[in-house]
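Hello Y.,

Per our agreement to keep a running log of every chain we model this quarter, I'm adding this entry. I've kept the format consistent with earlier entries: sequence first, then predicted structure.
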Amino acid sequence: MTRITALIALGLLAACEPSPGLVGAPGMRVASDAEVTACTPTKIYTTTPGVFGPVVGEQALEFARNQTMADAQEDGANTIVFEEGGLGDTDAFLIRARGYIC
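Predicted structure for the entry above:
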């Protein structure tokens, strides 16, 4: 690939808006159940990571968690509590969380 082609490709990629799964949800706070007792719950969110396993599972898990936070933020939540089951588990098949307005 020539330098010009590479620069054009890089420019096109820079013009695209990144997915919420890549950049997360600025302003969202991850909390524990004890920290949201005085908050108003919004709804429960579930996301399935696209891939599993020790090689790319961690990145897929982070992408799915970021996407879940972005979905909760779109519904007005500013805090999210993830279920303990899949945190740090690269073979997690489902991520569950509840959004809160605090």
